[in-house]
Specification:
2 copies of one chain form a homodimer. The first copy, chain A, has 211 residues and is mainly alpha-helical. Chain A has 11 helices and no strands.
């Protein structure tokens, strides 16, 4: 039920998860992968990102947990594949961390814009955000991802006074931009070329996190 | 169809529209008001805020356009009543305009927090935002409201260099905050007392509009 609702809403965009390495039996490999994805959508949808355990997803799919890691690597990557985004948001966030904290906002904005520019990204994002807003389980999974991955990562680059509040405000800015550009398509937020977005969003994130 | 979907999604919150003045016939007054609201929801949902004309809504409801103005005042107020928010967003935006432009961000944040603190406001906002994200016609109406009312009002208080982009960014911040607090309920955005939100949001809006 939950699964079919999610599957109905989410677009069929190529997953960013790597191709399975060519080892072991070939027969049924894509069937196994699809069974894991279906179980992951069901469980992420039902109990949220935090409470969904890889070993439970594996059990639901009738496979060994090692196969989940074989196909998808980490739980983050499985979450991403289940929601069909053509990039891994946790990796995009983490990619901006190395380097001078003062430049984190600009690096993050550049990385976000690069991710949003990938083929299929804008429609996948719009579908995910719509599902997150309208569909309680997807919203719960999204909230938990923001709370347990996004805000802690942002807080790691924030100034030491109230880093969590700064991070929450920065997360809210990113989410607000995604809704105005990809869901509501409000001009001029939706009409400015993405490459012009990076310096503006970067300056704003820097001010929020470090100013 | 559109109407029933909207009516299913939106909460039954007391409208902010004034009580009808006690003149003219009493009998059927609430029936007439409800018929106008139903026609307004249908038409705002079907064609959006901008294209919906008061005289068409009146015709749909089988009443004279003067009756729409009698019950609801302006088209803005009718839109608000149709979406059941316990405040008029256009009025909240406009209320912050008088005074020093440098202080607009803080005045707007204070006015928004006052509006969000009204009984039923948070659930009504969540329902409206969910509907706007998931339900194409409501999303269209919301986008048009943001483009034709919200951003122009914000731009009126922005610094003269790129006021529209500043206004779009400020609108995106307000929308992002509403989604993180009222829809996704992301901590700490959702747990900070609203009265502590005003100075932070105000400073951010000032920076975005004037910095």
């Amino acid at each position: 039920m939950v699964n079919s609702t999610l599957a109905d809403i989410l677009p069929k965009v190529k997953s960013s998860s790597p191709e399975p390495r060519r080892r072991g039996r070939r027969t049924g490999e894509s069937g196994t992968r699809d069974a894991i994805l279906a179980a992951a959508r069901e469980r992420f949808g039902a109990v949220g990102y935090g409470a969904a355990r890889v070993r439970d997803i594996a059990a639901d799919a009738g496979v060994d947990p090692a196969l989940v890691h074989y196909f998808f690597g980490t739980k983050d990557a499985l979450f991403t594949a289940a929601l069909e985004l053509p990039y891994n948001p946790a990796e995009v966030l983490a990619s901006a961390l190395p380097g001078d904290p003062e430049g984190f906002g600009e690096r993050l904005a550049t990385a976000l814009v690069e991710a949003w520019s990938r083929p299929g990204a804008s429609s996948a994002l719009a579908a995910l955000l719509r599902a997150a807003a309208a569909h309680e389980p997807t919203g719960t999974a999204t909230r938990e991802f923001v709370e347990t991955v996004m805000i802690p990562t942002l807080a790691g680059a924030a100034a030491p006074d109230e880093p969590d509040l700064r991070a929450a405000q920065a997360a809210s800015q990113i989410i607000g931009f995604m809704f105005t550009r990809f869901v509501f398509e409000v001009a001029p937020a939706s009409t400015v070329p993405l490459e012009e977005v990076a310096p503006r969003l970067g300056a704003l994130l820097r001010h929020t996190l470090r100013g």
